[in-house]
Amino acid sequence: MSNSFIDNLLETSLPEAGNSGINGYTVTEAGPIGVLGQLVVSAASRKDQVHGYSLASGVVIDSTKSQLGAATYTAAATDVKIYHPANTGDQVWKLVFNGTSAAIPQGRPVAKDLAYSGTEVALGALAIRLAVAADLADTVVGVAQFVIPVGEYGYVLVKGTGWIYADATLPLGGRLAPADDNVAVAAGTAPSFGVSHVLVGSADVLSMADINCAL
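User: That's the sequence. What structure does it adopt?
Assistant: Structure tokens below.
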């Protein structure tokens, strides 16, 4: 995986340039890098490829960045690793823009915002919104692997193993569908955008899944 992909992946998610960093670790500038709708492939590996960490505060740390003399970031127990798990095949990411009035949470699927009325991106470009229960799974364009703030660009995972915010009732091997607050099981023969890796349990939680979006 190229360094330019890692740069693009997390820099575009940061809320503003000049972020002060955590524990002396310097995070980098925000802003659009690349082209909306751009697909980027992260090649399969025998080792986990860690892109960064999503902190409980909502801050995203790019674990690949460092400067001479700067401290390296040590993950806390509450941090969620943003990564490409070993031996799970390729990942495919897509660059999108959050033109809504709310941040896109980690693990939630997104759909193209056909009602976008802003001026940041052109009409018909990949401005996105949260996918909800009324959206068919085959309209999902990707799943956020870290928070994408309002008015910011970020990559969403289109294909590959990654995080979903799963409904408590999602079964092992359950086919994925968007819901109003999480990711639920797809009904009957309805389309899906992936398959759950685990039996979730008694509460909604971030969980691993095979994501396979149609768009």
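Residues 3-159 form one domain.
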